[in-house]
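Researcher: For the record, we're logging two predictions in this thread. I'll number them. Prediction 1 follows.
Model: Prediction 1, sequence and structure:
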Amino acid sequence: MSSPTELRAYALHCLLENDPGVKVTAVAAMAEASRAGGCGLDPASVIVPAGAIPGRPDKPDLVPPLSVGRRSMATVEGRAMLIHALAHIEFNAVNLALDALWRFPGLPLEYYIDWLRVAAEEATHFAMLAAHLETLGYRYGDFPAHDSLWEMVGKTTEDVLARMALVPRTLEARGLDAIPPLRAKLAQAGDRDAAAILDIILRDEIGHVEIGNRWYNYLCQQRGLEPRATYAELAVRYKAPTPRGPFNIDARLKAGFTEEEVRAL
């Protein structure tokens, strides 16, 4: 089937794809089509999904977070389990970026270009982690995983403001704090390739959280809302997880959090 030529329709086309490798290739093709001017935005288009959202493979099995096993970093299996967990996060991040791109109409063109960039970079992250996982003798889907990130995406389908507040500004921002210690563990275990991949992911994730912050503040301004008070109300309403330290203050500031927000952590 030919790919759509309207940007939001193309994003939905990618979102519905079940096969991770095909999804990664499709997202790269969408980004290239957009750069080449062959995939534009039609504000009048009405886009209806024809399939389950998100598209994903039968494996990994999805289990509660506490049921996802852990092993020592001193073993290949232990490192593989960690890489697999990170790959699953990045696969979900591809889907959440695609969902943010197609689901919410009527926003400035720059919003869609920003989330296209996020989708393309998350797809690259997933591809790098999945390829590294194979060097360890495993494949994506070999271990169980949890679905916490996508669950918040599902809760915020009706309001782009809530989506920006609670997915990039909350759940993805946790990655800014989590990546440095995970990188240190992998480096200490001698997995320099995995550590280098996490360096790339942290660099890009700062930009992704900044995109979430920027559009959250834009939407607050458009609706005449005070950002900090609105965020507090949304966090309670949607039962968002409370941020826990230690925090990567430098990365959070680069990602657009204010000094006041960082101090409040």
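Researcher: Logged. Prediction 2.
Model: Prediction 2, sequence and structure:
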Amino acid sequence: MNQTVTVSITEDQRDCYQEISNVAMGQAADLLARLLDVKVILPIPVVNLIEVNELRMALSGIENTESVSGVCQGFIGNGISGEALLIFNDTSFADISSLLKYGGITDSSLELELLMDVANILIGACLRGVGEQLDVGFSQGHPVVLGQHVNLTDLIKAKNYRWTKTLAIEINYKIEGYDINCDLLLLFTEDAIGVLNEKVNYLLED
């Protein structure tokens, strides 16, 4: 007879995940700031244990009326797996193109290139930052386009997750003086949460 395993996190664990995310987010933002020669505005990361079908609620940084584009990238390491989602409001592309010296002219193929470039920088740096603190080496899959110029609900629907609960960490990046708004969402599978909690408990004991 199969037993249902209850997945949960304590307030102390949530605080620890938030602190880990804060450090990782800062490292990723520093990389982006140096690459684009801008000031990146950083919020406090939002950590929630949610049902996957509540994913829309986890993306508080983007309005539902906005047209967005997004990519996802799977990751795995030391028994911990998940997916990273990077979602841009479409008004970001002209400014990103200009900052990356693409000439400010954008079409859908160039936008896709910009999306992949920024996704590689932010997702890679953020996962490295999280992995270094938890002593985990993450391997990343190839980025996959979820959609371009769609509303957020449709973008999320495009992804069919095989798990029900997820530890979701939302990081919303804005760039001072530019109309650039992107949401990075790290989603850890429910199977990974027990392993993550053990690692976080070890940090809390120090």
